[in-house]
């Protein structure tokens, strides 16, 4: 889905006029609800943060219907129902790309899934209805239906991505100063069935101040953060291609270098090659190229955000903490793991935390999902504490749970390396000795770069099990 904010024709001139009228001085421009930038970004006085339509991947737009019936009302009612059935099939294929077929749902179940609809265009006669309808679905019922169907599904992004079309003309990269055919193709692309919503910046003064073409190509973190904040985006995609000054050569494939940047600093790069069709004109070819690039972005997102199906289960994990930053970073990365539906903090000290992760799928799938966010999950090798001797006339005291798994923050990129070599990163192959939980022994680190707990660090006292201290916020807003 491609969202583009339509700015007034003279918005840039208005901004210049206001800028000249307002005294010079620092002005803070920040999207409501977005995190503050790491470094203060220069913002042009008089400009306001960009506002774009909220990303809604649970909405299917442009569903075409053509129905004939005994009368106009009957045709319209049947057309609305047909549009909802078609929209459900489209949404299912969007979220479950590996499915060979779309399961049928009853009228009652469909009514539970559909939140509402909008008629975009319609033509009505005495017995015929032709129209285009947008159908909106309820996120949580859709998730429940997908999870209960035994299929892995993709948790869609909560926010759109900013896409920056960069054109290289005679060796000179262009982003803002000239209106290139590549940029026009992205601006004119109609809303489609993309999983990842994309927004093209308007190119106003604040956009130009936020990021330049060289900063976009080099992946400057501060500049990427500024443009993402302007559009409240969940990431930035730079799509660079080389167009000859004399015009597009339809006899040669078009190579588009696509680089995706996420807020956590991850970078994913790929090249999309598009061949021209015999009937293509230059504008049509570039529009089709944007569709291929969007499909590649969707596939990259699916690869990292697939949620296992089946009933929820809980896994108790120990999180060793060498510093407060370890806990902050662990919470941050856990919030980005879609497989984890709930995180309960049972106990926490200066040196470790005891956490219950609620997730779908088995522990191995959980390990893979955590590794994609550079979190390592390994067996501790710990044995359960022995039961205390019973005292006549007294109830048995509860025993604190013993975690079988240990969760640690890994270096950037280490999680992806462990997925590439499953035998070297198998949970059973990275054991932690039982003595790791003894107060007289330093806990060895299962992964390089993670400091062990110091000797003599206070441990959780045996006896009553730890109480839930809180629940970490989910990574994706559940509606």
TrEMBL record:
Residues 420-479 are annotated as: Disordered. It comes from the Bacteria. Residues 1-29 form the signal peptide. Residues 420-462 have a biased composition (Low complexity). Keywords: Signal. This is DUF2066 domain-containing protein. It comes from Azospirillum argentinense. The lineage of its organism: Bacteria, Pseudomonadati, Pseudomonadota, Alphaproteobacteria, Rhodospirillales.
